[in-house]
UniProtKB/TrEMBL annotation:
UniProt keyword annotation of Membrane present: yes
Name this polypeptide is given: Anaphase-promoting complex subunit 4 WD40 domain-containing protein
PANTHER family, A to Z: PROTEIN PHOSPHATASE PP2A REGULATORY SUBUNIT B (PTHR11871)
Chain segments annotated as transmembrane: 6-26
Originating species: Micrurus carvalhoi
A GO CC term attached to the entry: protein phosphatase type 2A complex
This protein's UniProt keywords: Membrane, Repeat, Transmembrane, Transmembrane helix, WD repeat
GO molecular function, one term: protein phosphatase regulator activity
Domain of life: Eukaryota
Amino acid sequence: MQMKQMGKTVFFLSYSAIMTGSYNNFFRMFDRNTRRDITLEASRESSKPRAILKPRKVCTGGKRKKDEISVDSLDFNKKILHTAWHPAENIIAVAATNNLYIFQDKIN
């Protein structure tokens, strides 16, 4: 499988998956087949070996759940600058400011 990068968004040529970077070191992945999306965060806490990324949700209203992040607390100086998807494996690379994060699909 090959990928094509257009701006800051990465598409698989089959166009079944899309990944894009955002502010606060968040990146989003979309699956066009299932119409599901997930927001994840590239951070030092998630870069520990065998750490599982936890989905993140940004809340725009006043009330928020414990695991949600208020839009007012986003750091717009931290941003994903580049994303890349391995052409044959479930591995992604995410570049944020001066850090490079590499994530691999969960190993059974």
